[in-house]
C-alpha cells in the first residue's frame, strides 16, 4: 500500500497486480504492480484537469517545437544561408539532445516525480527558443535547437509516468492517447497557424512567442499537478542504473523496439521537416498548399493518437493483443511511406492524411513494454524506448538531408530520384524490423 494522501488531496492508492497476462517471449507480468484506485478514488474529472491537462499542454509545445521548422525553414534560410545538410542538422539536433537526456531522465522521473522534472526542463526549452530567435548563424541556430530538444525531452515521458501513477492499467492506453493527441494538436498549430503568423511577424517573433508560452506551461504544471508518492524499493542510484541495463538486456524489449524506433523515428523526422519539401517537389504544391497539406497530416496524426488509445482497450477485450494492433498499424504506415518514396502524387492530401493517421500506430508499444516491468521502472522503460526512437529520428532526419542533397536542385526542387532513395531507405528498414517483431505478435495471447 502506498500510504497516506498525496499532495492536492488525492486519496490513498493501493498497489495491485496488473490484470494482464505475461509475455511468453520474455519476463512474465507476475512481477508487475500497478497503482489502482482504492475505495475512494479521486474523480476522473479532477485527474483529467490536474494531471492530464497540464502534461498535455507540455506535450503540445514539444510537438510544436518538433514540427515548426517544416514551415519556418524556408524563412530561416532566407535570413541565414542553409543547405540541405544544414537544415537537417539544425532541425535534427533537437532529436539528438532529446535522446541524450532519456536515460538520466528515466532515473530522475522515477526518483523525483514527473511534476518537478518537467517543470524545470521546460525552462531550458524556453531559453533555447529565445536563443534561437536571436541567432544569426548556423552554429547559433544549432545551439538554440539543442537546448529546446533537451528542455522538452521529458514532455511525453513525464506524462506517461504520471498516467501510470494515477490511472489503472486498463485506462493507460486511452490516457496516453489523450497526451499524444495533444501533440498532434501542437503539430497542427505548427503548420497553417504558423504560416498565418508569418504575415504578422517573422520566424524570430514566432520562436520568441513560443518561448513565452513555454514558461507559462512550466508554471501551470508546477502549480497544478499533485505529487504522487513513489513505490517503495526504488533503491539507490547504482541500483537504478543497473535496472536500466536490465531493461536493455531483456530480449522481449528488443523484439518490439526496432520496429517502433524506425517507424516513429522516420515519422517524426519526415512529418516534422521533410514532408513539406516533399509536397513542394513531388506534389508540386505552393508554400500555402504545402502548409495545408502539413495541416491535414497533423490533424490525421492527432486523430490517430486519440483513436489508438481509445480502440486499444476495446480491441483487447475482443482478443486482439495490443502488440498486434501496433504491428498492423505500422505495416499500413510502411505502405504510406512506400507510396511517398515511389512518388505517388495522384491524391497528395489523401496520402498526407493516411501517412499522418498510420504514423501513430507504434505509440501503443509504450503501454506494451511498460506492462513487462514493475511500476517503479515505468519511467525508465519509457525513456529506454524513447532513446532508441530519438536516436533513429536524428539519424533519419539528418541522413535524409544528406542523401537528398546528393542531387542538385532543378528549378528550386530536388528530383524524384532523390526522394525515392531518401524515403526508400527507412521504408525498407522498417519493413525488416516488422518482420523481426512477428514472433512476439504470434506468441502473445489475447
TrEMBL record:
Residues annotated as domain Major facilitator superfamily (MFS) profile: 51-445
UniProt topology in membrane: Multi-pass membrane protein
GO molecular function, one term: transmembrane transporter activity
InterPro entries in alphabetical order: MFS, MFS_dom, MFS_Efflux_Transporters, MFS_trans_sf
Keyword check for Membrane: yes
Compartments in which it is found: Cell membrane
A GO term from the CC aspect: plasma membrane
Pfam annotation, one family: MFS_1
Keywords from the named record: Cell membrane, Membrane, Transmembrane, Transmembrane helix
Signal peptide segment: none
Protein name: Permease of the major facilitator superfamily
Organism: Paramagnetospirillum magneticum (strain ATCC 700264 / AMB-1) (Magnetospirillum magneticum)
